Structures are given as C-alpha cells and as structure tokens.
Amino acid sequence: MLEELEEELVSNCREVLLICGGRQVNGGEWRDSMLGVTVARGRRYMGCVVRGVKPELEDASTDACIVYRGTTVRVANVSRVQVLEQDEEATIVKHDDYVYVYPTQLIKEIEEEYIKPIMRGGVPLNPGLLLIGPPGTGKTSMLKILADSVGFSRVEVTADQVLSKYVGESEQRLRKIIDDAFEREPSIIIVDDVEWLMVSREFAEGRELWRYSMFQVLADGIDRVRRERRAVLIAAATNVNTEVLDIALRRHGRFGEPKVIPPPTSTMLAKWITHAAQHVPWIRELAGKVGLDKLREFVAQAAYGGNSMSEVETALRKWLLEGKPKPLTSPTSGFRRVFMPKPIDNDVTACIRNTIGAIVDKAGKVILRPVINITQGAEALLEALLANSLTMLKQVALVPTDSLKVRETLTMAKLLGASVIVNEWSIIERYPVDVLEAPVPVFIVTTVPQPYASSLPTINLFPCTTPTKTMQIQDALQTLVRVAAEYYGVHTDERKPIRLGTEASDAVHLVKLAQLMRNMRFPDVNAAVSRLKEAA
User: Fold this and answer.
1) Are residues 324 and 366 in the same domain?
2) pTM to 2 decimal places
3) Range of the domain at 308
4) Which of 139, 221, 301, 436 has the smallest number of CB atoms closer than 10 Å to its CB?
C-alpha cells in the first residue's frame, strides 16, 4: 500500500498527535492495522481525532499526514463499551462495569442520523438530539454510552454548573462550556433535564429576558455546528411534556422531533438480567441466592407494570439487602403499561380485537362495557380484554397512575403510538380537553357519571358479531375467564370448564371474578371461583 502513496505526503509529517475521548493519548499501544491508512487533521479514525501534527519541514503547507512505519503514533483503546447482544428488539451493552438495555431500533436511528454523519466529516440534519422518556429509562446513560463507543469527548451540562444569580453570568458559563466542547471535538454536549434551559415563553414565569438570552446561547451553538461543519452533537434529555420546551429549538434544523426511550419490555428485561447476572457483581450474588429464573419472572412482572430500569434496579437491590422481594408499586413515570405476556387468539378474542382495532384506527374516544347491563365495576375485566387485544394489534397501552402527570402520559402515548386506558373518571373531569382531543385512542373503562358521558359513544363488547355468527357473553365465557386469568397471573386448565353460576348472572360473576384475580393472588382459577362463591 505504501508504494502507491505520493512521496511528498509521506515525508512531510514526522509525528501525529491523537486526541481520544477528549484527551491526548500518551504512550503505549501500537496498532499494525493502522499502517498505510491516510489520516487527515480533523478526521476521526478508530474513535480518535488528529489534533496536531509535527511536520518534518517547517514550511510544510499541507494538513495531511500519513500513518506509516516511520511515524510515531500514540494511541490507546478508549472504548469502554462492549455490545453483549443485539437483535431486532434489544441491544445489551456493558459500560463502566454495568449492563444496560435499549431498543435496537432507537440505537440504530441515532447512529444513522447523528453519529455516522459526524464520523464522515458531515453535520446531521438536526445538530441537536432530544431524548424524551419517563424518569429512570437511561436517557443520559445512553448519551454517555454513545459518546464513549465512538471516542467522542463528553461535555456534561447541569443547571448547577450554569445558573447564577448575577446578571449575564449564566450565559457566560454556558457559552464557555459550549466553546470547550468545540475545542475538544469530536464531542457530545449532554444536557440533562433540559427543561431548565429550553423552557418556552409560556412557562418562563416572568423570566422572559433571562429565558431569551439563555435560549440564544444554545441556539447559537447549534447554528455554529452547522455553519462551521463542526464535529459536535448537542444532546438533551427530558422527562416532561415537549410542549413545555421552546418551539424555536424543537424545529427542524435544531433539535427536531424527539427520540423516545420507553420503559423496557419483558423480553428486553429478561435478556438484560441474563447478562447482568454474569457481569454485575451484586446482581450475580442475588442470582446465586434466589436463582436466575426467579429474577426473570420478577423483572417480567415489573415490565408489565411499566416500571423503568431504575425502578427495577432499586427493587432488585432491596431484594438483595432484605432477603425477599417486594411487589413493585406503581412506577414514578405517572403511568403503567398494559401488556399481555401470552395473548390468547381464538374466534372470541379475534372478534373483540376487531372491535378494538376499529377504535384504534380512528384514534377514537369511547366508553367501554363488556355487555349493556354492566354499567360499573368491570374495570379489571375490561383491562384484561384490552391488554389481550392491543397486544395482538402490536399496540402499547398506558394507564395513568398520577393525576398530576396525565399530560405527560398523553405526550408519551403520542410519541409511542400507544393507546390510553382511563380507569378513573376524575381524570376526565380534570383534563377533559387534553384527554378527549388527544391524537391517540382513549378507552374509558370506569363508572361514568352524567353529564360528561353524554358526548362520548358507549361500546359494548358483547354481543360480538363475526362474519359468520353473533356471540353472546355466555358463548365466550370460558375464553374470557382464561384471558383474565392469564393477564392477572392465575393458572387455568383449558380442559376443565368453569362454572360461575346461572346463565343470567354469568356476566356479573365474571366481572367479580376478574376483580378478585386482580386484587388477590390465587394458585388457580378454581380457587378464585370458590372464593367468589363463598363471598356470594
């Protein structure tokens, strides 16, 4: 390869100084694979950037240098990221002695839209990257992992570093941090909880002058990346509704549309715990005490509840310290996810799915009932049936758990393309416009008082009509019991029919049985039915 290179390029550079991970690398590792590779100043190679050159001749006019046998190259392996497993759904990575899991599609989108353009010497269409998701989903950790995986400098920005009570000092501090990132390119500026910096004028609360000056510093930094074609990515993370963030920064060419990091799915957590038990000492210790299968079952249940990675990790640490697991409470994200681990697919559930699917397609808002004569108390049964149908439709569903975070839940549903299940009428009373005009399907499964209900259609799942027949709830009883049992983790035997009571009261008994299975643990359906009959 060297024989093909022009002699003048070989002779004009005696030493190449490499900057890796934002620091000049000193000493030690030689890379034979680099021999014969052209390295231009300002271009990246193997996670490093050529920051300085020492030309052989004082008047050398070229920036180009060649890495060859006569050139001293000081380089170290700066990548601390190891990909343990990657498939279509999940990417498992080890970083700084811990194991993380992220959606593969999200990782690939960020690599293609942001990292690769910078590595090729270009600028992404949006020089800013905005990540949104519930607390504890690992947004900031993902940015650090991306930076370290490609050798970019990490410049982290927090409110404590920047904000000052003195006029103009906050802006100076922020400008200095951004300038430092440009000096250390290729780099990623990481702004955590960015709402303190990107708050819109509607939420500035009288601080309009301060808000505008801080906004201008950040906007100038983004525009400078594009104008000077610099290898700098400005990345921000937030837990809040994006409507709180300034629209001028969210437009295309700056931050653009946010990327969503949702809570992990059950399969993602199952893969994560398998690798974490091998690479994370305290998780390995817990797995040794209770068994990996129990950990997989525990994290799967956590995923069905919509818990974030940080909530799962906290629960596992408590298990290790206290010697026994504790049920995970509602996640702090303000919602929980609805998901059927093993959807039941037959004529009955297909009929229900078609009814639900028609509502999803139109982003409809409906009051849902199992049958016309059941007007209250059916929340547990309806949630199970919705979970089964929406999982079959490959739809995520969110149930608000915090009345103060309903707007954030609706934003997350919009970003995820999810449906929303409302099981508390107070949510409709408090946020009627937000809920009823949201661009997502909304299923209301709770008792409905007047007059609010008059403007909403009510849909009964039964009788359920297929192209060949019309099914009453009695025709579907065995399947509906199975769906509720599967959703609430109660064993059922398909070979043994369930006897709830007289046909006239089957629907009422089914609703009560679903409530029992939701609120109490039973070894199997027969035990739940016995308890139901005792209560009657």
Assistant:
1) no
2) 0.67
3) 266-330
4) 436
Strand partners, 336: 399
Residues 6+ apart with CB under 8 A from 222: 127, 128, 234, 249, 254, 255
What's the DSSP call for residue 375? -
Which residue, chain included where needed, has tokens 């099981």?
Answer: 423
| Radius of gyration for the chain, computed over Cα atoms and rounded to the nearest angstrom | 29
Residues 166 and 251 in one domain: yes
Start-end of H helices in 50-151: 104-110, 116-119, 139-150
Nearest to 498 by CA among 518, 488, 487, 483: 483
Encode the chain (536 residues) as per-residue pLDDT tens digits.
222 323 333 233 344 444 444 444 443 332 322 322 333 333 334 344 444 444 443 433 444 444 443 444 433 334 467 888 989 889 999 988 899 999 999 998 988 888 888 777 778 888 889 888 877 888 889 988 888 777 678 888 887 777 776 767 888 888 898 898 888 877 889 988 776 666 544 434 444 444 557 778 888 888 888 888 888 898 988 875 566 566 766 677 788 888 888 888 888 999 999 999 999 999 999 999 999 999 998 998 888 777 888 889 999 999 999 998 887 766 677 888 888 878 899 999 999 999 999 999 999 999 999 998 887 889 999 999 999 999 899 888 899 988 888 888 888 888 778 899 999 888 888 888 889 899 999 999 987 776 667 788 999 999 998 888 899 988 898 999 999 999 988 888 777 777 776 444 678 889 999 999 988 888 888 888 888 888 76
Q: Where are the alpha helices (DSSP H) in 68-207?
A: 104-110, 116-119, 139-150, 159-162, 169-183, 195-198
From the list 499, 512, 232, 466, the residue with the least C-alpha distance to 349 is 466
CA distance 217 to 206: 19
Are residues 37 and 97 both part of a single domain?
A: no
Per the CB < 8 A criterion, the answer to whether 60 and 12 are in contact is yes
Residue 375 located in a structural domain: yes
